[in-house]
Amino acid sequence: MKISTGLFLSALPTTGALLSIKTLKNKFGTTATIGALTFAIATDSAIAGDVGQGQKIFNANCAVCHPGGRNLIVPEKSLEKEALEQYRSGGRSEESVMKQVRNGRNSMPAFGGRLDDESIADVAAYVIKSSEEGWN
C-alpha cells in the first residue's frame, strides 16, 4: 500500500493538529500510521449526530426552555453561536453540548438518564448546525 506523502490529514480531529502522513510514517511506521488515521477518521465520524433526528428530539425535550435557540431561564446563555463560544466550557462544539445535555448544569437538568448517547449526539449536531446557520 503506497501512502501519498504530500497529503495532509487531521490526525487528531479534536485538537485540529495537522500532521503530514510522511511525518507520521517516519515517526511511527506505516502500520501505526494507518491505524492512527483510521482511528481519527472513525472517532471524528462517530461524534457526528443526525441533525434531522436531533431537531425532533430537541423539539420534544429542549424547546420548552430553548425555543428558537433562546434561553428562557438565563437569556444571555442562549444557543446562539456567540453565546456558545463564550459560555460553554468546551467552546462551541458537539462534545461540549453533549456534556451539558448529558450532565446538566446550574438550572439545566441532566438528560443523560432520559436520552441515550446517540440521541444526545443528534441533539448536539442540531444545536451546532443551528447556531452556525441561525435559528429559525
UniProtKB/TrEMBL annotation:
Alphabetical list of SUPFAM superfamilies matching this protein: Cytochrome c
Keyword Lyase set for record: no
A Pfam family that the UniProt record links to this protein: Cytochrome_CBB3
Keyword list, A-Z: Electron transport, Heme, Iron, Metal-binding, Signal, Thylakoid, Transport
Localization annotation: Plastid, Chloroplast thylakoid lumen
Signal sequence, start to end: 1-17
GO molecular function: electron transfer activity; heme binding; iron ion binding
GO CC terms: chloroplast thylakoid lumen
InterPro entries per the UniProt record, alphabetical: Cyt_c-like_dom, Cyt_c-like_dom_sf, Cyt_C6, Cyt_C_IC
Domain of life: Eukaryota
Boundaries of every Cytochrome c domain copy: 49-131
PANTHER family, per database record: CYTOCHROME C6, CHLOROPLASTIC
Known role: Functions as an electron carrier between membrane-bound cytochrome b6-f and photosystem I in oxygenic photosynthesis.
Family per similarity comment: Belongs to the cytochrome c family. PetJ subfamily.
UniProt protein name: Cytochrome c-553
The organism's taxonomic lineage, starting at the top: Eukaryota, Sar, Stramenopiles, Ochrophyta, Bacillariophyta
